[in-house]
Amino acid sequence: MAPPGGTLVAPGQTNTLAWVSLITAVIAPFGHFTGIGGLTLTIVSIVTGHMARRQIRQTGEKGDGLALAGLIISYVHLALSALVFIFFFGLIVAALAAILAAVAGH
Residue 7 above 70 pLDDT? Predict the structure, then answer.
């Protein structure tokens, strides 16, 4: 009999969404360079990681560690991406300010 709100799974089965979360988390940093979309893959990893952990609690499947690893990698990637974005945005603003100051000084 399936648990309330859950589905019946084979004993020892690993949650598929946990694998999806981990794989997309590992591939996401390379997605920026290949055109696949690093941010898109990171979002997929975060969403599937949380879905997997919820399903694992309900069904008793394996894979909680995989889902957690996918979440950790994705959140770290997201934080680093935000820092890189802020850094480059700051460089652009500083460069524009220097150009405007040079133009105004002439």
Answer: no
Q: Which two tokens stand for residue 67?
A: 């889902």
pTM over 0.90: no
Please name the residue that has the structure tokens 């991406």. Answer: 81
Joined together, the tokens standing for residue 60 give 């008793």
CA distance 52 to 48: 6
Q: Give kind and range of the element (H or E) at residue 39.
A: helix 38-59
**Position 73: which residue type?**
I
Give the Cα separation of 12 and 57 in Å (integer). Answer: 14
Residue type, 59: T
Q: What is the pLDDT of residues 78-90, one digit of tens each?
A: 999 999 999 999 9
Q: Which residues contact 9 (CB under 8 A, 6 or more apart)?
A: 59, 60, 61
- Phi, psi (rounded to 5 degrees) for 40: -60, -45
